[in-house]
Specification:
The complex is a heterodimer of chains A (188) and B (192). Chain A is α+β, with helices and mostly antiparallel strands. Chain A folds into two domains: 29 residues; 154 residues, Immunoglobulin-like, CATH 2.60.40. Chain A contains six helices and nine strands; from the N terminus they run ααβββββαβαββαβα. In chain A, a hairpin with a 4-residue loop joins strand 4 and strand 5. The longest helix of chain A is centred in the N-terminal third of the chain and has 28 residues. Chain B has a six-stranded antiparallel β-sheet, with no helix packed on it. In chain B, strand 1 and strand 2 form a beta hairpin. The longest helix of chain B has 27 residues. Classes of the chains: A alpha+beta (188), B alpha+beta (192).
Chain lengths: 188, 192
């Protein structure tokens, strides 16, 4: 009897380890996460508008139908990226996600304080290699460090009422993410 | 033989407990740092780089892109204020005001996070569309039958979730639930 109770206890303890291991491993093995869902329809380092979510089909669950959205699936292995997003009629935000879909940074139109959200995305290594220029103050340029070399940038613009959806889509159509060089990023 | 049987038993228990706990944690939304206000729940920390392993696993499993904290906060309600699951066949009323935010949207999804088909093609409201009373409060009728004012159709689905997203809001990780975060009340009226 005691023998079985001990085995049960051992099994439960081992079960705890199995539980934590599966939770930790899950993001690396998921085949239906947002990054995997977006990969077939989004070319790398290009802004791709996403179709509006509809009852019978949506790329991802829980998408906000009041927003026009676009995604830039990035790969920084060949250099940093320059992102330019014109601000929409009501509210525009740019959110950055790691390869495992964890949001690590976001900025909205008001925080950017301009009509165009303009920033450079690079890995921490690339950032540390960036040539320093004395006459450019850090506040003039926005540099975002990506914790993973690949990831997603989600660009969203609110259509405050359904009639404004086309305007919001047009605003997003002007968004660009393109490869740049460290020197170019430093010179801006 | 007894050793083999015992080992098998222990491993079986381990697999059941371990995988069962993982399944439960991920389907019930077990991330830490939940902010509960009435029947609304938000996980502001899930939208940051500090998201805990449970939040990360649940993001990977469901395939969503969470709202980043610099963008906004998303509150979900699956029950009314009395704890009764939201039923698309009943008349549910959402009333009150929302916390400070530049914009907000309210959206109705089925249990899988898909929009629900309905005759008027309405899946939610934005803060600009809503008809308010003179004191700024509003009332939204959520139900299968058309009603005057702000009507959010349910399409008659059995279970649904309401998601209130606050954009550009001071509500965040440090916010204490309470007076500064007035969320709308949800009450179920008549059910067929």
């Amino acid at each position: 009897m005691i023998r079985w109770a001990l085995l049960l206890l051992g099994g439960v303890l081992l079960g705890g380890i199995v539980h934590f291991a599966t939770v930790i491993v899950m993001p690396r093995t998921a085949t239906q996460d947002a990054y995997a869902r977006l990969t077939p329809i989004t070319p790398v380092n290009t802004v791709t508008p996403l179709p509006e979510p509809a009852p019978d089909k949506a790329i991802m669950p829980f998408m906000d139908p009041a927003f026009a959205s676009a995604v830039c699936r990035y790969d920084l292995s060949e250099g940093p990226l320059k992102l330019t997003v014109p601000v929409g009629p009501a509210y525009t935000s740019v959110s950055f996600y790691t390869r495992y879909d964890v949001a690590y940074y976001a900025i909205n139109d008001r925080a950017a304080g301009r009509r165009v959200i303009d920033l450079d995305l690079m890995t921490p290594e690339q950032h540390s290699q960036m040539p320093e220029e004395e006459d450019v103050t850090a506040a003039d340029r926005l540099i975002v460090e990506s914790p993973t070399p690949t990831g997603l940038i989600a660009i969203r613009t609110l259509a405050a009422e359904p009639g404004l959806m086309d305007k919001a889509k047009n605003a997003i159509a002007g968004a660009k993410c393109e490869k740049t060089t460290l020197a170019a990023a430093a010179a801006r | 033989m007894r050793l083999l049987l015992g080992t098998l038993f222990a491993l079986l228990v381990a697999a059941t407990v371990g995988l069962g706990a993982t399944y439960f944690a991920l389907t019930r939304g077990a991330a830490f740092g939940a902010m509960r206000i009435g029947s609304w729940t938000a996980w502001p920390k899930t939208g940051t780089a500090d998201a805990d392993p449970y939040a990360r696993a649940s993001i990977a499993r469901t395939g969503i892109l969470t709202i980043a904290l610099g963008d906004g906060v998303s509150f979900t309600a699956r029950t009314d204020d009395d704890g009764k699951p939201l039923d698309g066949r009943c008349d549910v009323v959402l009333s009150g005001i929302t916390p400070a935010a530049r914009f907000w949207t309210l959206t109705l999804y089925n249990e899988n996070g898909e929009l629900v088909a309905n005759s008027v093609n309405r899946h939610g409201f934005t803060s600009q569309e809503i008809v308010r009373r003179s004191d700024g409060s509003f009332e939204i009728a959520v139900g299968p039958r058309a009603s005057p004012g702000n009507w959010l159709p349910t399409g008659g689905v059995e279970r649904y979730a309401l998601v209130l997203r606050l954009y550009d809001t001071p509500v965040g990780v440090a916010t204490k639930a309470g007076r500064e975060v007035p969320m709308p009340k949800i009450s179920t009226g008549s059910c067929p």
